[in-house]
Design goal:
Strand 1, helix 3 and strand 2 form a beta-alpha-beta unit. The N and C termini lie far apart (about 55 Å). A 5-stranded parallel sheet has the order 2-1-3-4-5, sandwiched between helices. With about 270 residues, it is an alpha/beta fold. The chain contains 10 helices and 5 strands; from the N terminus they run H-H-E-H-E-H-E-H-E-H-E-H-H-H-H.
Length: about 270
Amino acid sequence: MIGGEKITEQPSHFDHLEEMTPAQLLQHINEEDHLVAEAVRQALPQIEAFVVHVEERMRRGGRLFYIGAGTSGRLGVLDASEIPPTFGVPETWVTALIAGGDRALRHAVENAEDDAEQGWADLLPYCPTANDSLLGIAASGTTPYVVETLRRARAEGLLTGCLTSNPQTPLAREAQYPIETIVGPEFVTGSSRMKSGTAHKMVLNMISTTLMIRLGRVEGNRMVNMKLSNAKLVDRGTRMIQETLGIGYDEARERLLKSGSVKDAIH
């Protein structure tokens, strides 16, 4: 934040949006989006520090939790929900909590993000331990539901990180490993579902994918542990086996269906 003002709340670089043509709007949104990847690049050392320490704990049986509200919470849920089918791991490895619960995935839940005590209450049923890690996600860096949960988690010995789009926020002060993606003002002033959300989706992809690779869930560049949950994934797995073993498609598919996974079929 600059002088107490959140960068995410500063006026857009563009004005009179309602007077622009569709082509102009799309062009200027795209111009703003070009800033996102550079903001993420600047945060790479922060992302690395968090990932390295989470990996250490996960190797000891720890889990990774995401917590957020609104767009931030939904992005955490999206990333966590894709880990089991992509990498063939238990759902407990990466879990996401969102203020307001599952209803908040589709609907705004009034005042949910302002409840400073509810986040820890939402985490307690998972029986968090000192081997676990918690990443608080909040573009503003001030969301009470997230800030207070991170504070409590750190006091209880969990490893804590955060993902925010403002510098030097209350959330970052509660995190051992803050990640700050400073993307600047949004195209529509204050609409952090745009650049901030895009940056945070990128970082979550990086965190979870890097962890899963480091924990042995990828071989070469292939998702050899993916769950065969539909025809597309069976076809993809068949082609992986075909390419790896140099055999025909039908034989590769038979091996896959018999073994149940690409990894077992090629070893």
